[in-house]
């Protein structure tokens, strides 16, 4: 699905279409400031690829946006509501899947996924769980203890939560393609594409180039927001027609 | 909030049922530690009967503290804790569920095993009953305070020892009134004052500890 004309400029989308908005956001890890003056608007129906070198603050940014830590400076608005005022029920507006899969070794794949679904108030009946595991291609291992699954299979079970969740408009995914084989990547691309087509919004990190084509991922390069880099010079958020980094995205 | 509470509690019980040996370790510690005292102090029945309430309480306290150290550690390591804190419910539901799971898996088995200790230390039936009632009121306090200590020391290198140093002073009132109640009964007096104080302690802990635990969990996952 090509991006609508109105969304082509990521910094100036209308408020109604904006799912995630940050203003002058700054993040720190320990005492070190990783990025600052980060202004972005993520519109509905978009997939944004968050890039940056190791230690640039990609995970820190995602955790800030998920409300797991608080920003050093700036404001985060999700679906028009400030993250500070969102409260527990507001957390239904987004879904965060981190580096870790949050699966318990002693549970079966279905039980582990069912726990996460119940925890977040997603459908947790047997057929929904089955369907979700099927989407990510791990149905044949549904009764196997997580302990016996490979890294890639664990990742698939964790990501099967995406296939359950129609409700949360914003997905924050930290290295979702990690450990996945090409089948897994295709399955995930499809789930992400459908979410975007339904008006969802996805922000993800990946150390390898995205193979997602529909919708074409936009690029957000954190290098442009490192302390000391003037934000006026670095055009760090840009729509890309291909998955390769846009030329000129780096300062 | 209720949904998250039951969801976490059910999962913890299910995990314990998958690892039965691990779940029985606190109970085994309790029984072994209890059986050391007659060996160390000597088999004089009168002495043993006098020190029994204190010994049972101290062993219950230590068994609770040793098992509470791992209450959040596993969930922190595999990312489950993060996901629990992202659930659409206040973190206090998670703190309360984990404390409840700890009590069901540690406190309750200790109470069930206590009559055995009464038998071993030659305690009278009213004394054993007083001890049981005291533990029933007191072990939830230990689990709640233990969960608070575990949340505060989460991710620290020498967390286990620090946890015990933080919680033991907080748990001494429960120990004093719990063991004191048995002494009163043994002396033929009413222990209702001690039980009232234990009950009051329990209420205060139920009101305060999960809130503090929730705050500590938020800080440790930041």
Per-chain topology:
The complex is a heterodimer of chains A (251) and B (222).
Chain A: E1 18-29, E2 32-43, E3 46-51, H1 58-66, E4 73-78, E5 81-82, H2 83-90, E6 94-97, H3 109-119, H4 126-135, H5 151-164, E7 170-173, H6 182-197, E8 201-205, E9 218-221, E10 237-239
Chain B: H1 2-18, H2 20-41, H3 45-68, H4 73-77, H5 80-85, H6 91-120, H7 125-152, H8 159-186, H9 192-221
| DSSP helical segment count of chain A | 6
Report the strand count of chain A: 10
User: What is the strand arrangement across the widest sheet of chain A?
Assistant: 6-7-8-3-9-10
Spans of chain A with pLDDT under 50 lasting ≥5 residues? 1-15, 232-236, 240-251
**Mean pLDDT value of chain A:** 82
Shape of chain B: elongated
What would you say this structure looks like, in words?
Chain A is an alpha/beta fold. Chain A has a domain at 10-106 and 166-239: 3-Layer(aba) Sandwich (Rossmann fold). Chain A is built from 6 helices and 10 strands. Chain A has a 6-stranded mixed sheet, with helices on both faces. In chain A, helix 4 crosses helix 5 (151-164). Chain A is globular. Residues 1-15, 232-236 and 240-251 of chain A have low confidence and may be disordered. Chain B is mainly alpha-helical and 222 residues long. Chain B has one domain. Helices cover 86% and strands 0% of the residues of chain B. Chain B is built from 9 helices and no strands. Chain B is elongated, with a radius of gyration of 18 Å. The two termini of chain B are 22 Å apart. The model of chain B has no long low-confidence stretch (mean pLDDT 92). Chain A binds chain B through residues 66-70, 88-92, 96, 98-107, 111, 115-116, 118-121, and chain B through 1, 3-4, 7-8, 11, 14-15, 18-19, 77-80, 82-90, 221-222.
């Amino acid at each position: 699905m090509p991006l609508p004309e109105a969304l082509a400029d990521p910094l100036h989308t209308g408020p109604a279409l904006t799912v995630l908005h940050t203003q002058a956001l700054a993040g720190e890890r320990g005492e070190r400031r990783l990025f600052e003056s980060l202004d972005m608007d993520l519109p509905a129906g978009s997939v944004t690829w968050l890039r940056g070198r190791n230690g640039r603050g990609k995970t820190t940014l995602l955790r800030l946006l998920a409300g797991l830590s608080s920003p050093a400076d700036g404001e985060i608005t999700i679906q028009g509501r400030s993250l500070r005022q969102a409260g527990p029920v507001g957390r239904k507006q987004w879904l965060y899947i981190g580096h870790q899969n949050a699966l318990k070794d002693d549970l079966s794949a279905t039980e582990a996924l069912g726990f996460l679904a119940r925890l977040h108030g997603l459908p947790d009946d047997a057929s929904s769980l089955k369907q979700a595991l099927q989407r990510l291609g791990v149905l044949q291992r549904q009764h196997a203890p997580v302990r016996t699954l490979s890294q890639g299979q664990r990742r698939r079970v964790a990501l099967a939560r995406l296939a359950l969740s129609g409700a949360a408009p914003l997905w924050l995914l930290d290295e979702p393609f990690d450990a996945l084989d090409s089948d897994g990547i295709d399955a995930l691309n499809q789930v992400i594409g459908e979410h975007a087509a339904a008006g969802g919004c996805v922000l993800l990190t990946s150390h390898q180039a995205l193979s997602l084509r529909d919708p074409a991922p936009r690029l957000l390069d954190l290098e442009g927001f490192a302390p000391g880099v003037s934000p006026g010079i670095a055009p760090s958020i840009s729509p890309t027609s291909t998955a390769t980094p846009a030329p000129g995205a780096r300062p | 909030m209720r949904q998250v509470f039951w969801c976490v509690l059910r999962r913890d019980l299910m995990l314990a049922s998958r690892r039965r040996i691990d779940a029985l370790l606190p109970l085994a510690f309790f029984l072994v530690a209890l059986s050391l005292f007659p060996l160390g102090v000597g088999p004089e029945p009168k002495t043993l009967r006098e020190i029994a309430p204190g010994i049972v309480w101290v062993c219950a306290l230590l068994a609770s503290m040793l098992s509470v150290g791992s209450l959040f550690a596993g969930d922190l390591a595999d990312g489950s804790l993060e996901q629990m804190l992202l659930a659409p419910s206040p973190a206090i539901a998670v703190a309360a569920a984990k404390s409840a799971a700890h009590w069901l898996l540690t406190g309750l088995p200790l109470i069930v095993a206590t009559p055995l200790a009464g038998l071993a230390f030659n305690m009278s039936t009213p004394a054993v009953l007083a001890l049981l009632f005291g533990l029933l009121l007191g072990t939830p306090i230990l689990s709640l305070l233990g969960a608070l200590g575990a949340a505060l020391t989460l991710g620290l290198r020498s967390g286990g020892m620090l946890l015990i140093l933080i919680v033991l002073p907080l748990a001494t009132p429960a120990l004093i009134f719990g063991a004191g109640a048995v002494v009163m009964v043994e002396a033929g007096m009413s222990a209702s004052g001690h039980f009232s104080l234990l009950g009051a302690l329990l209420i205060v802990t139920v009101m305060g500890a999960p809130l503090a635990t929730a705050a500590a969990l938020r800080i440790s996952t930041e």
